[in-house]
């Protein structure tokens, strides 16, 4: 893929995500490093570098997720697919609270929150600060395809 096309694709991913991590909702200007474009389905699993398979992810979410597409749900021991921001509504699986914590509403939410370490104390504090300054609103989270 040509460099210009990659830059344009990255810009479209960022714009769609409203400059927030599509997994943990962290605004990109509140992280300690620039967010990255993640392949929802990793290339090694056949995922393509196309808009419908890309998500905007903070460094911790992207590193913890890696190429994983599923994990073992702790309550049942079943293998459950991770949250897919392209096809699933964030609020169906998670709830963001004013103190920066994210609680899970479903098995998909539980495996994703655990694997991606959503409630690491530092990350919770950064989200709480973002909420306190009005950059992040617990009532307005990203839906599938980046729409609020």
Describe the structure.
With 148 residues, this protein is an alpha+beta fold. The chain has one domain (3-146). It has five helices and six strands. The chain has helices at residues 3-16, 59-65, 90-93, 107-115, 121-132, and strands at residues 36-39, 54-57, 70-72, 79-81, 94-96, 102-104. A two-stranded antiparallel ribbon has the order 1-2. A two-stranded antiparallel ribbon has the order 3-4. Strands 5-6 form a two-stranded antiparallel sheet. The longest helix is centred in the N-terminal third of the chain and has 14 residues, at 3-16. It starts with a helix and ends in a 16-residue tail after the last helix. Residues 144-148 have low confidence and may be disordered.
Give a quick set of tags describing it.
148 residues, globular, two-stranded antiparallel sheet, alpha+beta, two-stranded antiparallel ribbon, single chain, 14% strand, disordered C terminus
Query: What is the total number of structural domains?
Result: 1
Strand arrangement, major sheet: 1-2
Q: How much of the residues is beta strand, in percent?
A: 5-15%
Largest sheet: 2 strands, antiparallel
Question: Given the structure, what is the number of helices?
Answer: 5
Topology of this structure?
Elements: H1 3-16, E1 36-39, E2 54-57, H2 59-65, E3 70-72, E4 79-81, H3 90-93, E5 94-96, E6 102-104, H4 107-115, H5 121-132
Give a brief rundown of this model.
With 148 residues, the protein is α+β, with helices and mostly antiparallel strands. The chain has helices at residues 3-16, 59-65, 90-93, 107-115, 121-132; strands at 36-39, 54-57, 70-72, 79-81, 94-96, 102-104. The protein starts with a helix and ends in a 16-residue tail after the last helix.
């Amino acid at each position: 893929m040509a460099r210009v096309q990659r830059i344009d694709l990255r810009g479209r991913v960022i714009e769609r995500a409203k400059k927030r991590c599509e997994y943990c909702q962290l605004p990109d200007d509140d992280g300690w490093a620039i967010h990255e474009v993640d392949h929802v389905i990793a290339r090694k699993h056949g995922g393509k570098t196309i808009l419908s398979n890309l998500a905007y992810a903070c460094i911790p979410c992207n590193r913890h997720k890696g190429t994983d597409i599923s994990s073992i749900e702790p309550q049942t021991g079943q293998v459950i697919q991770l949250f897919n921001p392209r096809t699933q509504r964030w609020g169906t699986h998670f709830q963001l609270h004013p103190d920066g914590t994210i609680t899970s509403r479903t098995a998909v939410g539980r495996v994703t929150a655990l694997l991606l370490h959503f409630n690491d104390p530092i990350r919770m504090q950064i989200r709480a600060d973002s909420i306190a300054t009005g950059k992040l609103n617990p009532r307005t989270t990203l839906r599938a395809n980046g729409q609020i």
